[in-house]
Amino acid sequence: PAAAFAIHRLSTSAAASPSHGTLPSRLRNLIGGEFLESQSEASIDVLNPATQEVVSRVPLTTNEEFKAAVNAAKSAFPKWRNAPVTARQRIMLKLQELIRRDMDKLAVNITTEQGKTLKDAQGDVFRGLEVVEHACGMATLQMGEFVSNVSTGIDTYSIREPLGVCAGICPFNFPAMIPLWMFPLAVTCGNTFILKPSEKDPGAAMMLAELALEAGLPDGVLNIVHGTNDVVNNICDDEDIKAISFVGSNTAGMHIYSRAAAKGKRVQSNMGAKNHAIIMPDASVDAALDALVAAGFGAAGQRCMALSTAVFVGGSKPWEDELIKRAQALKVNAGIEPGTDLGPVISRQAKDRICRLIQSGIESGARVLLDGRDIVVPGYVDGNFVGPTILADVTSHMECYKEEIFGPVLLLMQAESLQEAIHIVNSNKYGNGASVFTTSGVSARKFQNDIEAGQVGINVPIPVPLPFFSFTGSKASFAGDLNFYGKAGVQFYTQIKTVTQQWKDSPSQGVSLAMPTSQ
Ligand code: NAD
């Protein structure tokens, strides 16, 4: 019965609380299909950012446990790579059904550990679910190419083969979507996988792993290890790991990119951002304002595609009153409460950092239109809340502009022309996303051509492509050359092999030592 199963599943990935019942449960590693308690003495507390309650504890996986996970993945690989692609797809078909079944449970876990609203948490799961749906078509995605008669009686064809053991290292801000960007495509290509969830909110990844096992993923195909820098460095250094998918900050991403590349691994590294919107004077007013408020403050600004900077061509003054009004109307509360628009930020340190960057903006001459630093949320006085904040007259040299704030802070800048606005955006080191709001096709087309960002929105505030395209951040927002999901994602998780075959019944032409050429 479903209830008995739910209890069983709860007890697999988290060790039971000790008999005195005071300590929250400690998560387990997943090694070779078994949820195993870590021998490590050290743990990190997972805190509910709205209350500071300890939700669970994450062990720092030991070196031996890490190696056991890699060995499990390595041993599972030969059989799994030879499983029919249709069998691998069917597990994804089942997984997408199970994720839908448990959508609400996953969302509650995300809201509890990460802080975002329940509706936004469902979006987090849903955007990952779409990658699982995409993986269900792997037979087509992984198809090779064939050219008949490249020379007389000779054909050439290419095959996309899995790499072996791959690994994924996740950030805190999308606890379900980002693990789902990684392991479903990797394993459906025939790889085995080591996942390292964010130590700040690993619960959703654990639930997804349980669902993957329930869907029929064989033991050892997906493994989970926990921790921070040490386990990440182990992943970078391990000779048996062939590829690493990383999403997170530039500091960690560039470290992982160079350390793993030095060991000959391929790495795709999605990193930080500063996403701009250019607002033309002819933009549709209500649509542009709604988009700025939603994309600036949604998820408390903790999205790598959040619109954190608005460049107003012709100046921001005519827009400011309405913008303030809409931002003030947003309800800041715990994500679990009905009607909440934005929840807390992930940690006390994150809040302190956001407040420090707001202060530095003010000290360097920005005009405060709305200040959310002192917000107190009744019933959640310990929560890491920052209310919507708007700074105007921001310039490119300010620290609040140069740094990714990753909080509910919208910066307003000005430009005299579209050309100047594009120049501002292109001078920024990041290149994740950029949008333009305009009713002019001419302006939109110029923007699309001239803007140096990997994901472009035209009257669309958060232009994150669906999985049949790829997530194409660029400049300092990405390192590597094969992006996440879509065609590039499949290329990332496969090695191309090109076969040339000759079957002809004509007699031998004799020995020739010259380089073969097509005839
Ligand atoms: P983070 O870099 O602090 O952590 C990400 C992962 O790296 C975690 O698993 C963490 O344990 C590990 N890590 C952190 N520091 C490390 C170090 N010095 N050495 C080795 N491993 C380390 O990132 P975060 O705070 O969890 O996530 C927020 C960041 O992620 C933001 O910069 C955001 O823009 C970025 N992000 C980017 C995308 C994208 O697709 N471009 C998507 C989501 C988040």
Automatic annotation (TrEMBL):
One of its GO terms (cellular component) is mitochondrion. Signal peptide: none annotated. Its EC number is 1.2.1.27. Keywords: NAD, Oxidoreductase. GO terms for molecular function: methylmalonate-semialdehyde dehydrogenase (acylating, NAD) activity. It holds the Pfam family Aldedh. GO terms for biological process: L-valine catabolic process; thymine catabolic process. Residues 36-499 form the Aldehyde dehydrogenase domain. Belongs to the aldehyde dehydrogenase family. PANTHER family: MALONATE-SEMIALDEHYDE DEHYDROGENASE, METHYLMALONATE-SEMIALDEHYDE DEHYDROGENASE [ACYLATING], MITOCHONDRIAL. This is methylmalonate-semialdehyde dehydrogenase (CoA acylating). The gene is LOC105053889.
